[in-house]
Amino acid sequence: xxxxxxxxxxxxxxxxxxxxxxxxxxxxxxxxxxxxxxxxxxxxxxxxxxxxxxxxxxxxxxxxxxxxxxxxxxxxxxxxxxxxxxxxxxxxxxxxxxxxxxxxxxxxxxxxxxxxxxxxxxxxxxxxxxxxxxxxxxxxxxxxxxxxxxxxxxxxxxxxxxxxxxxxxxxxxxxxxxxxxxxxx
Length: 185
What we know:
The protein is of the alpha+beta class. It has 6 helices and 8 strands. The chain has an 8-stranded mixed β-sheet, sandwiched between helices. A hairpin with a 4-residue loop joins β4 (about 80-90) and β5. The longest helix has 17 residues, at about 110-125. The radius of gyration is 16 Å and the shape is globular. The two termini are about 25 Å apart.
């Protein structure tokens, strides 16, 4: 079996539904990029540019080595962020994970927790991934708690991995194995 993210699924949950990103989601991506806290938490330095955002989301479906899904709030049908599986390494059955929400108006509502669980279930149970890993910066304990709740395990620390506003920050390396997922299920 060859691993691939060519299939772009719709993953429904109680609070949110994950679906492939689309050009129509570009305003949400721009909101995400314009929020200083969201940018800091993800170390995103991209400047909001409507044309770049449209082109980016228009081309995500063409890639079989990454899965970019919009997080859509079920109650309103609005885009509240994105979740991404990327850096697919077929031979090792591994990939990276990242998630970003549009900003404080949606923080603390459980959207990130549910989106994380939905995409991990897809990765492990449908795609056949063995290992999903991420980095989380030391100034983001809220995200680290979400990842730990989902079953990610702290593996180590990258010292002074991020220079942000003239200050160095460490990044925690966390991962979840297929066996961790199955044990928690």
